[in-house]
User: Fold these one by one.
Assistant:
Number 1:
Amino acid sequence: MNCEEAKKLIHAYVDRELDLVQSLELERHLTDCNSCSKEYAGLQALRSVVGSVYQKPPAQLQNRIRSAIRKEVKSETRPRMLSWRWIGVAASIVLLVFLSWGLFRVLSGSSPDEALAREVVSSHVRSLMASHLTDVPSSDQHTVKPWFNGKLDFSPPVIDLADQGYPLAGGRLDYLNNRTVAALIYQRRGHFINLFVWPSTGERERPRPETLNGYNVIHWYQSDMSCWAVSDLNAEELNEFVRLLKSKSTS
Amino acid sequence: MFKRSGERKDEAELDQIKREQFELSVLPHLGAAYNLARWLTRNEHDAEDVVQESYLRAYRFFGGFRGGDGRAWLLTIVRNTCYSWLQQNRPRELSDSLDDAAENIESDAPSPEAELIKTADGKLVTQALEELPLEFREILVLREMEGMSYKEIADMADIPLGTVMSRLARARKRLQQILAPTVAREA
């Protein structure tokens, strides 16, 4: 790792947002590089001085708030004779479903798919941090697609969705699931979507959405490719993105 | 008649349960709420008013709170209440909003020495933080004081993740630069 890369990752390192591999690489660099380790010490020092001016509330504020809430409770109009009881019933059902789902998750353990999903999320976060989002920055599919020639042993489908509000930002090589994969980057109102593609066959034609560490991830297979879309964009728009992608690639 | 009064009693009990649950899950985060309000309004008395208003709002919305991180939930409400308060009382502070696109203007200058920064006392740090634009102050409070993750901050401030990262880096740089010459002068 060189200094330029290290300087970009160092904030995420201080904030514990790097994955293990990257953290270790950066730590190795810090032991060798005086200038970067100074930068690191500077960030640590900043955190400790900022933390030292944490403002404590005055002692009476808690009581003031308690009594304000009591007043609020009394003044609330109450047209909800029946509803509270039903809310109670509904809450117990929700809790039951939630608990049994949790139990199911614990018993079933983490699948290889889930480990891969974590890898995908981690790649996404890393691509945003290291300002290594694109190797070939272009909104033109006819520039991006040929760029992958000779760099991959397959040709990823590159689809233009600019008219639908998801312009292409470029392409990149990435490493996932123990192989080199194509990463296509799309944009939506300042949010980036990483679309990872590599050859693989699987049953799942219907996209499966999930949420990991707050990121939305969707996985599906199409034309013998394994596809993963990941973003901090909301779930609806990411679903819409995948739907458009699928409809465009079959037409 | 009996039934009616019985129902009324149920209701009073339910109100009490709601209030107890609220006090149990939200009141412990008073410190974080006050700290955020204090830095966003830059004034103790205003912070107290904003925090009280936030708690009343939180109580009204408590039915919509689905468990989980009570602190992030409360801080989102405190942040929104602060912004409406600023809008009403100091609209000028909101008007000169930050240009997130103007990236890395500050980042070329070398960082000041850690040892130098560490000598800054509380008064200097407070002054330096208060000098920062609202968005910088806010992100430093959320990250450096509350230890919130990039994703939590992105959700709370409703900004993309990339903006959280670049804004945080710029805010840190700016604070270091305000602190370093001040400390050097005092020393």
Note: Chain A touches chain B through 52 residues (CB under 8 Å).
Number 2:
Amino acid sequence: MYTVQEFYDNHKKELSLALEAGGEGLDRRIRKPEAHRPGLSLTGEMRRFETARLIIIGRHELDFLRKFDTLTCKTRLSEILTPLTPAVIVARGRIPPKELVELCEKQQLPLFRSPERATKLLSRVAFLLLEEFAPTTTLHGTLVEIFGVGVLIQGDSSVGKSEAALGLIEKGHRLISDDVVKVKKNEHFQLVGSGPEITRHLMEIRGIGIVNVAHLYGAVCVRPNKVIDLVVKLEEWDSQHFYDRVGLEQKYIDFLDTSIPYHLVPLKPGRDIVLLLETIALNHRLREMGYNSAREFNAKLIEAISKREPKRLRRRIAK
Amino acid sequence: MKVARNVKVKNSLGLHTRPAASIVRLLQSFKSAVTFTCKNETINARSIMSILMLAARKNTQITITAEGSDAEALVDRLVRAFDNEFGEG
């Protein structure tokens, strides 16, 4: 449940919000990531009016309301201020009309004032709300950025995720989060991973303990968040399992209804995991640029085979 | 077998590094998969970082869920550790 209080706490600085009235209603729920400029609704046109939207009142609306006497102004306003309305913001730092203040006090509806323009507020509030409403989840794994590719390393405890990340950092790649990754789906349907505030840039390495990599290796080796482009699962080498040997088919794994390219990499003493991860990331970049090593090779091979056939036939005929 | 039980953090400093380490150490001798659920967040209890992320203070309610052959014994042992404040009492 997302309340106006949370919205106010998180964004009052950015939107320069000041509470004017209706403070008792701060526990009102925001049900939809939508904001609305009443405009037409103030003229009495209430068909298709969405009640659960946050209302932003700009210069235009204020000037229009001034044309009415107190009673009409109140009726018009009370039509748009429903029990489901989360809050009202008056733009451009204008002093809200006393009818609005009275109604908000009476209905315990939070009324804010902001120096921003209504158009800007509308887009900012909608964007912020969309972000707050984005589906999120917490994943077990280590998120690193390798050559600009966001790679989520997963695998059982003690398989060597943190060690792999440490090796990558040492080579100049970046850590986003170790062990716990908070994932949010953004408006482009990408998954953005970040570390929880409290364990940010910390790693736990067996035999050493908790280290802060930002302090050890400097600010260059960390990043606050990153889109997850790839998932690599590390596991102990299982001789029964057939691992991908050619890479013609891309496997995918789903998180929050989004498919992400997925690789299963078996570990064995002597396999350089850092090098493997770097290669996977580079290969992914190459694919993004339109070049698929395995497919390209296969195409060449097929071409070579089809060319050679007639020659061989000819020779056979000559014999 | 799946076992779930609620516990409360009792030691005054909450789940800080030392209790987290003792939880992880305690779990080493068990095979079942264990998760903690706290404030709508479910984490793997075998990971110190995950436990620390919860930043659970005193009197926070945590749901322990264990699944596996030794789940019952594991949960018992964990609840006892929580009750005895991880020896910090």
Note: The mean pLDDT of chain A is 89.
Number 3:
Amino acid sequence: MELFATVFAMTYQFGDAFAFLVISCAGLAVIFGMMGIINLAHGEFIMCGAYVTAATARAGLPLPLAILCGALVAGIVGMAIERTVVRHLYHRPLDSIIATWGISLIATQGMLIVLGSTMQGIGTPLGSITVGERSYSAYRLVLMAVAIGLLLGLYLLFYHTRFGVIARATIQRPQMARALGVDTRRIYGLTFGLGAALAGLAGGLYAPTMTMVPTMGATFIVESFVTVVVGGADIFVGAAPAAAILAVIKASMTAWYGQLFGQIGLLVAVIVVIRVLPGGLSAWLKRSKQ
Amino acid sequence: MTHRLRLGALAAAVAGGTALLAAGPLAAQDGPIKIGVLEDQSGDFAAATNVKVNAIRLAADEINEGGGIAGRPIELVIYDTQSDNRRYQEFMRRVLQQDQVDVVFAGFSSASREAYRPIVNQFDGLAFYNNQYEGGVCDANMIVTGAVPEQQFSTLIPWMMETYGPNAYTLAADYNFGQISAEWVRQIVEENGGTMVGEEFIPLGVSQFSQSIQNIQGSDADFVVTLLVGAAQASYYEQAAAADVGLPMASSVNVGQGYEHKRFTPPSLASMYVTTNYIEEIDTPESQAFVEKFRAAFPDEPYINQEAANSYIAMNLYKQLVERAGTTEHDALRGIIAEGDVCFDGPSGGVCLDPKSQHMSHTIFLAKVEDDHSISFPKVWENIAPYWLGDSGCDLTQNDPSAQYTPSSPPPAN
């Protein structure tokens, strides 16, 4: 029993770190990993999802629906921004950095001015479970399941649906896709919107566990960029193992040396990966398969 | 005709010029008193500090309606420091050099205070720091109205140990405030025969606490001292409650600054104990009157915290100093402080400035957060002087070391 409790404690910490990395990187994996757009307003999509979730949940909507609402609104906002700003900057990466940074500043300051410096939270549902001497938040176990479901869902969407095939074709060979009659502009817009919706979903899922402030998206940014960079260009091959490896590093470093070393471990891992495997884990996995 | 006109214009210009010349030196004495306000109105700390700016505005309006400071109106020069230490340095230079303010009210985090303090010293400015902090700043250019460890921890920690048991676990923000405060907690726990069963420092901006929660549950802690700072770190309470940690918490910063009991869903902050010199729930006539006029001026203010009261008191103390000295010259103001009777009856009761350290005495309220997040006050300590600096050898009436001291590096013995 003692052994089981210890193993459960370690697994829980790993699962918790894994869930956070996967959920926070999903949106960025699509927008940055797949489409190659550097979007500095990513944290604000997360904040948008969290705020909409909190507002609708407080208005009486059940939490799962509220979270979907948050994702949906973030997705729509994402598509609007793609159409008005990002679309015109696909071949100008430096300009898109500046433009999305500007959007990020406008969004955080706008929220601060309109809604004030904080918003009341909604409280974590589902209570706690006890294993051995320790008790754990049941909601965080749900987050772990959601993370795995999310990876599976994205894989199915991009590899086993018509939209997924067209989206990948559009991003890899836009001229060819256009020649075959694909409306590439629409596909770009939809894919960007999907990425924004996934960011909103991350915000919505973590909204019940966090402080609601306009800058809350920033706490996800480091983890999500790190996971996407370690994962490499093909996110569906790379993201899951990247999140797993980083979760082991983060959870064990945090357990042994504290939060500061957990963060250091994460960043050192990225530096090593970029140096040794410039294409990320996915490029390395693909090469070793051949 | 034209000739006469030209002459007239010339005469007028000459007369005007002389008037201007005569008015020049007078303006410095008769013009407005300029007060620089550097506070975080956006960024990680904004939730706790926006209210300070409004408290200063409220005090300035009141003083101006009453005829100003010695007949001179107050002019506020306000900059948003964005929770960014570099902004503090930039704006501190600007208010002192370019805007030429008479006094500055500045700073929330201790990191920001230590970032701007050398600049205040360099230009021999005068700054009020209106925040509770880890104590120990012995600097003649600074006047501190916030509470310090001998007021907040020497009261809180022994009370917690008596009530809940001798084992303490500290969770602190990883910068000078958290590190030095944790040192104070460690010392007080050991002096009272208790044990530190754990101590953890969390980098600012961290929002995920699963491992810390597990560590706390694995220790024999009787209570947790939470010295967490900023919006991201405040996520701890929600996550600890969800994991059912169920230990009482003690803090010098929560509730009284970031009104976490209002922002989080009950009962995530239940059994949180905070020593504070003011919060809006304090049920005295002075406090109620303050809350009433504050809400009349700023109806949308989410919470009136201890820093709001401190900022308001600081404005009135400055008014008193200038009126008694008859000038805004810093040496003259320090002369008045040295007389030892600079006191003010404000929202938190009577307070006085200590000449040796230029810190302020406080009545300290022990605020307890109940299950429904209402506040009760199990204990009040009347009128605690900021004695540690003076007792350890800091005496600003004699010399000005412009240094910060801690229990492990006290002022050098003379």
Note: Residues 27 and 199 of chain A are 5 Å apart (CA to CA).
Number 4:
Amino acid sequence: MKISLNWIRKYVDLPEDLSEKQIAYDLTMRTVEVEDLIDTSLKYHNIVVGKIINVNQHPNADKLKVCTVDCGLDELKEIVCGGLNLYEGQYVAVALPGSSVVWHGEGEPVKIKENKLRGVKSYGMISASEEIYLGDIYKDEPENIMDLGKIEDIKQDELVAGASISDVLNLNDFILDIDNKSLTNRPDLWGHYGVAREIAAIYKLKLKDLLDEQINIQDYKSLPKYKINILEKEKCKRYLALKIENLYVKESPAWLKIALKSVGINPKNAIVDITNYVMLATGQPNHAFDSNQVEGEEIVIRNATKGEKIVLLDDNDLELSTDDLVIADIEEPMCLAGIRGGKKDSVLDSTESIVLEIANFSPNTIRKTEQRFGEKTDSGIRYEKGIDTERIDIALDLSLDLFNKIYPENKITAYGEVTNEHTASSEIDISQDFLDRRIGTKLSEKDIIDTLSILGYQIEVRDKGAYKIDKSIRKDSNGNPIEDKYYHILAPTWRSTGDVSIRDDILGDLARMIGYENFKRKPLPVEFNKAIKQPKEELERRIREYLSFRCNFYEIFTYPWVSDKYINAINSDIEKMVKLATPPSPEQAYLRSTLITGLLESAEKNLRYFNEFNLHEIAEVFEKGKYSPSTDEEILPIQKMMISGISVSNSNEKAFFDIKGVLESMSRYCHMEDFTFKKIDKPSWADENAYLNILSNENIIGSFGLVSLKSLHESGINNPAVAVFEIEMSKLKPFTSRTNKYISLPVFPQVEEDLSIVVDEQIKWKDIHYAIINKCNEVKFKEVYRGKQIPEGKKSIMFTISIGSDKGTLNSKQIDKKMRSIIETLKKLCGAELRS
Amino acid sequence: MSISFEKIREDGLKKIDEAKDVDILQDIRRELTGKKSVISDMLKKLKDLSPEERKSFGKKTNDLKMLFFEKIEEKKNELINNSSSVSSDFDISLPGNLIKQGTLHPITQMQYDLNDAFRSLGFEIFKEDDISSEKFAFDNLNFPPDHPARATMDTYWIDGTENKRGTKRLCLRPHLTGASVRYLLKNGAPARFVYPGRVYRNEATDARHERAFFQYEALVVDKDISFSSGKLMIDTIMEKVFGRKVNTRMREGFFPFTEPGYEIDMECLVCNGKGCKVCNGNGWIEVMPGGVIHPNVLKSANLDPDVWSGFYTNIGLDRLVMMRYGVDDVRLFHSADLRFLKQFR
């Protein structure tokens, strides 16, 4: 929302030494976020009043004139101009070199330079109003330039050559651009008067009355009644209609147009401009109907009937639902209540009388209808914040004042008002002790009253009885309240529609007005009663760090919604998956039930730039089911934190055993109970020959393995080998402390021998290890070889065994004996041949 | 015996002196003092000499042997001290062997830095699941029944629950604050905890807006605690995370679950508060909304608002990380792009 400081100055006298920047800063600190401060005079920089001394025909162009102009500079300047209304002695707007203008009022601003036009030097440009951003305010005849002497608002003695055009036309202003989001809870700030009140409160200044002279409404109340029929009392608490005749459509005075334009509203005609001005001043939307179009001289506020339509200004139909509140005459709806008018009731050039509506609609109904039609209007935005019913009165005052000023000949011929409910002031009791405790410093009664009164609160000090309204009041050793004073407070109605209702709200107003930066910074109280010990948290961190720092995995985050493509690629069971009602896109409606999909998608993306890499992700997956983390009534789907990783490389062996290696060392490095591997249940993404389940106490807690060719293919991954793992975090059991065990170093030397054997392909390492581990201290795998010297269907396995005795050093005879026994066993149990 | 001790000595010392490396020196040692050396020959002849001759000849021979040993050792030390393991062309400008190490995501890094800072102040870490209910995401937190954030346009509701209410209407949590009531229901007060995590909003994405992003929230609940403790706490945390004092300011803000509410801005670290593109020219970045916990929220957590009070601090993790590294597109955090992630090693 835009706020003009010139407009604010009508309601509060700002000290001369108070800079606009300071106001923007203080408002941001105390009230609402000012996102930008715009100096409007910058737009008119170097555009000045020029006096034409003489006008001569251009030597080379029939349609151009060469003017000698006094621009208030050291010498007269020649300016080429094509305007039809040039004359000697004329006061014009000259855009000097360095200024910016908009050619013919269209497109982006262009910088003016000293130039030659058809061979004649031209020092700048004599401008039409639309070229210097004033087309909406001062309209020129076609092909004419702006004739300043003919503008009524300008006093002739201000027309001095060289004077800045923004000074002369009162265009110097500062605009505060306020973040609408910071205003959502403050319906009172959606007009200049409300913002002026805040500024007055911040600087302890006097807020003037909205009007200099009070308008006597009683006069109107005795007029013939304008018929108002509210059928939806909940949705419309108050409605006021005024029939104003003897009007005609004309342009607004310049000051009004400048005011509207400064805050981004385009002037239309005086009637519409008045309604907009009233809204921007008071925050109260209002609407003018062409009274001839109101059939039956009656306003009906009702829900739309089924199939009813409103024809909009652009001739499009708006189809209504039975929840939409409309303003109708006795025949049909004229406009969407509080949001937008229709074609029927619009103020047109032919309009001679209007019905002025100033009404209160419930925020709910406005918001719902806006949502249904997907549009927000200036009026709707204000209503949906919750406006108090009493604001209608000041909006009426201001409207009447403006109509009287701009249409002195107007006649008010009928008045109607229906009030179903007045906004009640919030009544709040707040103890001095509560304020002292929560603010952390003691505020004086005077400070409290001064601060709150400017904001519109009525405060009654009650010296005794706080203990009755505040049960947590601090007491002395005799059980008497230390401070028994409290304040009985009436909030202003404009703050009583939800914004202020409890004592904490009063505390908030005091805190912000004193200024958060003015409070003493207090340390948090510290109590040493326990050390923070969260083994599961610490385990998760160790696992992330293990994967990233020791195992060369990059941590990634992917979205919880997963594309259908990947769901299909790994054959996820869609029946079990949780679905979003309004997903980011139709093919991303399901929430992941495994992290593998995200890993595959990420691998596919990264394969464009990298051949080999490892990624890991720790995140939640979802599955239909029942889970109640906090209360029995709340039943959520099953949500599991998973640890996952992917290894992309050129060889299946490397990918598989890299992942296996990571998992084998994980428990040791991360200080948790170990898990085992067993092939039991193939995950949907796994290659049927190369996967293992991960088990803890016989229960499957995860899996790893190569990704099946089908899954890879459908994920768009073609060449490389890919292995993945996934483990359920909650099934891992952290050690409460470090548990490394020390085993005494061997007293007698151990002998290490390398063995190379040839076995059938179906013999697994596990078989070999199992066969001889009882005869050795250690059996360490080195490598597998298949190739020239090895027959088809066989493989060579090399490993190192370590033998020794705890009784003495083995001599060569003993060693030979042990080795023979080992080789014999390998032959018998594994059919192994020693490779020479 | 016509042996010139002098000559043997001179020749031997010359050879030793001229030895170019340790291997050659080893050969010289063998030649001079080994089994087939001159010295060895001379010692063999000792038995043929008269006792007197033997005595002086033996001593001379031994002295010579000792001298050679000494000189050889000297030369050896000299050679070792002055020689290199590699040639002088050894290319020391080649890069070192690569350490294979991945990274924690920059968001995780920041989260852990904050965890460390908060834990040093006695905060526990708490986690809530991603899917929550309207009851916890909105009702408990004093959001009015018709608050726009409850609409499907803002929040990701779970299919089949979107038209229900309260505990029956489920969503991907739109903020972390719901977790605060879960923790308080479970653990009661006083409490001091942080709860980091990912939150979800149904909105159009661009360089500054994401559908999934990270927050880090802290809550202190205690008896008669004043919100002025919040600012000091934040300043302490920021200083610990950024390694230097970061200017902050506390200003008016509004959130349904706080009263009063405030925004904490930090001075833009890109321009040091002078105003730049990152901070939209005003020198401050909005990073931490917060405020005093609303009495209605305490009631949701079965706590008596007359007894307990406290304050929230919600840190926008994405924005803080963007500020720390000058990252210009929030979508990179969910891109899984290694070209991005590799920069945070």
Note: Residues 51-81 of chain B form the longest helix (31 residues).
